[in-house]
Amino acid sequence: MASPEIRVFNTLQQAKVPLQPVTPGKVGIYVCGPTVYSFVHIGNARTFTSFDTVVRYLRYRGFEVKYVRNYTDVDDKIIKAAKETGEDAIALAARFVREFEADAKQLRLLPPDVSPKVSETIPEIVAIIEKLVARNAAYVSGGDVYFEVRKYPEYLKLSKRNLDDLIAGAGERELVGEQKRDPLDFALWKAAKPGEPSWPSPWGAGRPGWHIECSAMSAKYLGETFDLHGGGLDLIFPHHENEIAQSEAASGKTLCNCWMHGGFLDLEGAKMSKSLGNVVRLRDALEKVDAEALRYFFLSTHYRQQLAFTDKSLADAEARMGYFYETLKKVDERIAGKDFGTGPLHGDPQRFLTEFDEQVSDDFNFPGGLGALSGLFGEFNALTDPKSPVKDKAMVGRTLVALREVARKIAAALGLFETDAAEWLLRHRDRLVIARGIDAKKVQEMVAARDAARAAKNYAESDRIRAEAKAMGVELMDSPTGTTWKIAA
Questions:
Q1: Which residues of the chain have pLDDT under 50?
Q2: pLDDT for res 6
Q3: CA separation for the pair 447, 469 (Å, rounded)
Q4: pTM of the entire structure?
Q5: CB proximity list for 79: less than 8 A, separation 6 or greater
Q6: Is the peptide bond before 34 cis (omega within 30 degrees of 0)?
Q7: 255: CB partners within 8 A, 6+ apart
Q8: Backbone phi, then psi, for 138, in 5-degree steps?
Q9: I need a surface site. Which of 289, 307, 330, 417 has the fewest CB within 10 A?
Q10: Inter-residue contact 150 to 156 (CB < 8 Å)
Q11: Contact call for residues 469 and 433 (beta carbons, < 8 A)
Q12: Maximum distance among all alpha carbons in the chain?
C-alpha cells in the first residue's frame, strides 16, 4: 500500500497544501532558532520539539532532509544582557549556545545538519544588503541601512495585516534617533555604537538588523528558494514578513514554498512570554518531569494549537509514559531470546503503521499518531493478558514480535522510547519516591517480608503487607523473581 500524500498547512495560503519539494525526494527546512541571551524556556522548547519531530517523520518517510536551525547571537537583547552582567556580548551568546545545546540534548532534540550563527554569517548578510541598496529597495541613512517597505508591493502577504493600520500604529511609536523615510521601514544594518559588537561594511562599522540575519543564513545553506520555514506564531509579524520582503526583493524569487508556525504554550492560562515574566525554563521543568514525558506532552496537542501547561497535564503525561514503558518491559521479557517459528499472525500488526501514516501525513498530526500508538499498546496488553482469547502461544509470540517492530518504527519517528524500559521505570519510580516523600528503605523491608510470607505460604500476612503498602501509595506486584514495587497511580 502506497504511503499517503503529506499535506502541510501553509500560513501564507491559509490552507493545507501538498508537500512538493524543490528537488524531489529532498526537503530543505529552516527553523528560526533561539536568541541566545538567556536559558531556553518551555515555550521555545515546544516549538523546537514540534519541528524536530517534523524532521524525524520526513526522514522516516524516506526524504533526504537538510535541517537548518540558527542561533541569533547578535541582537539588542544580547547586548542588553551583556551590559547587565558586564560580559562581552559575543562571549555571553556563546555561553548560552552551550547551555541551549545541553538542554536540547536532554530533551532528545536531533542536532540540526547546520546550526549557523549570525556572527559567522556577516559577509553573506552584507552581500544581500548591498544587493538591496543597488536595486533601490534599501537606502543608507546616517550609517544605518533601511529596507524601504513601500518598494515591495506584496508586503504583509504572510501576516494578512492592513498597511493603513500599521502606519497609524507606527505613527504613535517613538522614532527618535532613527533616520527613516517611512515609519514602517526596518533596519538591515545598524551603525556601530560604543561598547557594542560591530563589523566593517560599505556603510561603516555596525551590525546587522534582526530580520536580515535569517535571510542570509537560510540562503547560504538552503538556497534562495527552499521547502519549509518554521517558527512560532509570534514570528509571523514582523520577523517572517520582513524576511520575505527583503529576500524576495533581493533575489526576485520565492523565499519559501511553505510557512509553518507553531502555537503558543499557555502557562495556567497565560501565554508563555519572557516579557510577561511567567516563564518556566526548560531545565527547571526537566528537574520535575521526565524528558520523554515532556516530549510526549508537547506532541499530545497539534503543533498549530495552543497548549496548556499545568502540573496535572505533566503528571498525566508522565503516567502515560509509565504505562507505555511498563508494557514494553512486559512484552520484551515475553519475547526476548525466543523463536516462535513461522506461521500466521493474530490480526494485522501493520494496520497500526498504516493508521499512524494516515494521521501524521495530514499536517503532521502527531496527536493522531499517538492515538495509533495507543491502539498498538492496547493490542500488546490484550495479547499478554492471561485471559486473552488467543490461546496459540506461538501465534501470540510471532504477533508480539511483529507489533514490537512496528512500535520501534513509530517511536523512532516521534523520538520516544529511546531509553531501556527497566531503566526508565526505575528512574521514574525514584523521582516519585522523592516527590511524594515515600520511605524507600521501609518499602524494601516490606518487599522482603512479603517474599518471606509467601515462601512460608502465609498468604494472610502477604495480603496484609500489600494492603499496608497500598496505604502508603505503593503497589506491590508479584513476578517470577519475587515481589517488585512501583508508586501507585
A1: 172-177
A2: 98
A3: 9
A4: 0.93
A5: 89, 196, 197
A6: no
A7: 215, 218, 224, 225, 226, 229, 243, 244, 247, 248
A8: -140, 160
A9: 330
A10: no
A11: no
A12: 92
Burial of 382 (0-12, 13-18, 19+ CB in 10 A): middle
Mean predicted lDDT score pLDDT of the chain: 93
Q: Take residue 397 and report the three cell numbers written for it.
A: 509470540
Helix and strand numbers (H, E) in the chain are 16, 15
Contact status, residue 262 vs residue 303, Cβ threshold 8 Å = yes
Rounded to a whole number of angstroms, the CA Rg of the chain reads: 27
Residue 179's pLDDT is 82
Give the Cα separation of 169 and 156 in Å (integer): 15
Residue 352 grid coordinates: 497500526
* Distance set, CA 134 to CA 131, 139, 140, 254 (Å): 5, 9, 11, 20
Q: How many CB atoms lie within 10 A of CB 322?
A: 20
Bond from prior residue into 238 cis (ω within 30 degrees of 0): yes
At 362 the three-state DSSP class reads strand
For residue 177, what pLDDT is reported?
45
- 256-262 sheet: strands from edge to edge: 64-69, 26-31, 226-232, 256-262
State the residue for C-alpha cell 538588523: 209
184 Cβ neighbours under 8 A, 6+ residues apart: 149, 150, 163, 166, 167, 170
One-character DSSP codes across 64-81: EEEEEE-BB-SSHHHHHH
Task: Give which of 399, 408, 395, 393 is closest to 379, Cα–Cα.
Answer: 399
